[in-house]
Amino acid sequence: MSPRPSKKLRAIDTPIVLTPEEIAFVRGMVIHEDDQVIALNKPAGLSSQGGRIATHTLDELLWAFARSSGNRPRLIHRLDRDTSGVLLTGRTKPAAGFLGKALMGKRFRKTYLAIVAPGAPQPAKGLIELPLRREMQGREAYMKTCAADHPDAELARTRYRTLAANDEAALVELSPETGRMHQLRVHMASLGRPIAGDVRYGGALTLGGRPVPRLMLHAAALTFPHPDGQEMRVEAPPPADFEGLRAALFGAD
């Protein structure tokens, strides 16, 4: 997540030729589309932009929606590669500019689902206010909690509530009020309840007698001001791997 449009989110100006399979793949992610915005349900394993894997990123796949003028949608924010769920794009430069300003103005409300372990956080709901700072370990960037007066401290706030729990794990709803890198992952780890599958921050790799397939974090909903003036909410159903682990741990809804 990013609190403001990153320089890394600049549009790729050179068109990319996509295969029919790639075009069908990205079009299959669409959960809302109009003249101003396209909302997508990004699968886990797909980099939003700038991934190191030699496959197209979501940003590059957006050429599937390019218009005859050569304009294509622009990412407004990002998700970590192994996080699934809602991503918003602006179809035009004015729409992308409007949405970027709304994001910087904290007018976006994001809702995530996560499976954490062991058991429910204590208390079962609350507000985490822990500043974060970035630290490099080799080529990898990590975020760590720090004192508010640390020179590199960034304010970070996350609301959470427990939706289901047993002695082994919990399903939690997370609502970030700021957008720091890895914020939800580090904040849940700070409570002693890292997100399952999060190798970087100590998440469980097996739960309910089965392996955790990936980072169990899903961007379930996004509420934002539409460029046309109304408030809009888009939702993305969790993927099969998330639902399968949730059902194994807590039973069917």
From TrEMBL:
Keyword annotations from UniProtKB, A to Z: Isomerase
InterPro entries to which the protein is assigned, alphabetical: PsdUridine_synth_cat_dom_sf, PsdUridine_synth_RsuA/RluA, RluA_PseudoU_synthase
EC number, as in UniProt: 5.4.99.28, 5.4.99.29
Keyword Cell wall biogenesis/degradation found: no
GO molecular function: 23S rRNA pseudouridine(746) synthase activity; tRNA pseudouridine(32) synthase activity
First-tier enzyme category under EC: isomerase
Stretch forming the signal peptide: none
Domain Pseudouridine synthase RsuA/RluA-like, residue spans: 36-190
Family: Belongs to the pseudouridine synthase RluA family.
Family matches, as PANTHER family: MITOCHONDRIAL RNA PSEUDOURIDINE SYNTHASE, RNA PSEUDOURIDYLATE SYNTHASE DOMAIN-CONTAINING PROTEIN 1
Name listed for the protein in its UniProt record: tRNA pseudouridine32 synthase/23S rRNA pseudouridine746 synthase
Organism the protein comes from: Caulobacter ginsengisoli
